[in-house]
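Hi L.,

You mentioned the student needs an example of a multi-chain input paired with its predicted structure. This one should do, with 231 residues in total across all chains.
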Amino acid sequence: AQSVAQPEDQVNVAEGNPLTVKCTYSVSGNPYLFWYVQYPNRGLQFLLKYITGDNLVKGSYGFEAEFNKSQTSFHLKKPSALVSDSALYFCAVRVMGANQAGTALIFGKGTTLSVSS
Amino acid sequence: EAGVTQFPSHSVIEKGQTVTLRCDPISGHDNLYWYRRVMGKEIKFLLHFVKESKQDESGMPNNRFLAERTGGTYSTLKVQPAELEDSGVYFCASSHRDFAYEQYFGPGTRLTVT
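Structure written out for the whole complex:
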């Protein structure tokens, strides 16, 4: 079965330090990978995606993620964390079906990022 | 460009009652998705519309859930009769094209069944 794992329920980091939020996936076929962020009382906001090409993708708010096919990972990173980055982060994957049916996103459970000042 | 909107933002109903959730996608987006997140768990896919047609409804939990998208614009998700396990946050998302394009999410409707 296709799945996404976010092994950490919570990540704590001090402001100014680098942050990493981990994501691994298990799919058959080529994955299309996404990161979303949810701030309190808000909907999910798109951060970045990997479709093809360069394994390092850059997204909104200074975030980036690296696609690693051999490790089936797509970790989210930021060189210098801000207190305002504190939120709930979701990794998601899509895989093309034979008739493009079933193109929904498969989400991980989410990781709460807490950045302290 | 207006984003995806959902109504209501929060609904509290008793077991056995009926609730209808509404989603207005971004104008021009043919693809509309419903998802649900039960407390502390993954966000799970419910169904996918392409215009007014149901492309994939494999995630609908049972026949107490009915989704419609008349005219290919807004969509409704009705739960009848509601059960305790239906509590959660229901998200709607839309996308202009399928697949490689990101989905844009609404703020969600928090449903509490007591």
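You could point out the following to them. Chain B touches chain A at residues 3-4, 6, 33, 35, 40-45, 48, 55-56, 58-59, 91, 93, 98-100, 102-108 (CB under 8 Å). The CA atoms of residues 11 and 111 of chain B lie 5 Å apart.

Best wishes,
N.
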